[in-house]
């Protein structure tokens, strides 16, 4: 049976009866894909793992709580034989052969009439890798090939440009806080497929160096804006390139919608009918404290965290922040764009009742090679920023979480 290579095929199982014999680890691993394929799954086993039990409880599979019996494969289109009893598996595969039901056997690939490939998915494509014959089966090798292909497609190192239907338009991609590993899989793939990338100063700039030479990379800060505001000039550049039918990525630091003006750009594109997709990113407001060992919440310490822009001082009439209310909160305050105004901010918080000894941490250039953390209190932070020469970009964390570390005492139950 194994002298010829297996014939690869994709089974369309929606509503079709599939019988699974055994409820252990093999079934547990294979069931999610069968469920995703819409199969009508009948599982026969005296016992199952808790995860398989959860699938039965959720109505995703029908579970018959008994050992395999002759006749269980009646009307099946496909069977997975994976009981712990070799003798039962042999009887079941004989029944499958008789009834012409394709069957996979977990204990003996040679006796099976079908093999399960190592599979993975990337944006509408299923990658399935099969060994050529049963004797040469090396599941780790097939899984490694699958991983290499899927990861390559996801992170853009394996690009299939001639076969992809690329949609011209703009993708607003949240690039994360700076570490190139902290962009999403989707963001990285879109970046790899872009014709034009308009990038901010913050974000994963190292990724730009990896782009192929034909990709036009534009520094958003250097777009001349003459009679327009800088943001309008960026919007115009996005529109202009998209109108030429190019795939444009607007690469932004953190998340596009957290103080990122992402919606303004989306609105400008919508006004002229240019399609735009938004890819969320890991915001610096959470990831930068985390990179410096600070959890923004911690059981028994902080039950809330509030992210605030500090780009205008509390006494500035343009400020939309209710600083007196923030001073009354007991949780964590995370301030972005606040280095220049931290003196005024700390003063205002203390004036409205926040203790002057409240811990503060400033994390500069978080997640990059230049990351540094400087600690202070609300009473000392203005002076510390001066003496330590803290510079933007920095995330400022205010609250007791600053003092929580790996060696801290266990929080109250
Ligand atoms: C215009 S806001 C953009 C925030 C971004 N959209 C996000 O979700 O992280 C820029 C501010 O984010 C913070 N920031 C962004 N990346 C940072 C990093 N790697 N280290 C420290 N602060 C960062 C700084 O407070 C900076 O002034």
TrEMBL record:
MF terms (GO), sorted A to Z: NAD binding; precorrin-2 dehydrogenase activity; sirohydrochlorin ferrochelatase activity; uroporphyrin-III C-methyltransferase activity
Active site: 200 (proton acceptor), 222 (proton donor)
Keywords of this entry: Cobalamin biosynthesis, Lyase, Methyltransferase, Multifunctional enzyme, NAD, Oxidoreductase, Porphyrin biosynthesis, S-adenosyl-L-methionine, Transferase
Pfam families on file: NAD_binding_7, TP_methylase
Pathway: Porphyrin-containing compound metabolism; siroheme biosynthesis; sirohydrochlorin from precorrin-2: step 1/1
Transferase found in the keyword field: yes
Signal peptide: none
Gene Ontology terms describing biological process: cobalamin biosynthetic process; methylation; siroheme biosynthetic process
Reaction(s) this enzyme catalyzes, per UniProt: precorrin-2 + NAD(+) = sirohydrochlorin + NADH + 2 H(+)
Domain Tetrapyrrole methylase: 170-381
InterPro entries: 4pyrrol_Mease, 4pyrrol_Methylase_sf, 4pyrrole_Mease_sub1, 4pyrrole_Mease_sub2, CobA/CysG_C, NAD(P)-bd_dom_sf, Siro_Cobalamin_biosynth, Sirohaem_synth
PANTHER family: S-ADENOSYL-L-METHIONINE-DEPENDENT UROPORPHYRINOGEN III METHYLTRANSFERASE, CHLOROPLASTIC (PTHR45790:SF3), SIROHEME SYNTHASE-RELATED (PTHR45790)
Protein family membership: Belongs to the precorrin methyltransferase family.
Protein name (Swiss-Prot/TrEMBL): Uroporphyrinogen-III C-methyltransferase
Organism in which the protein naturally occurs: Streptomyces swartbergensis
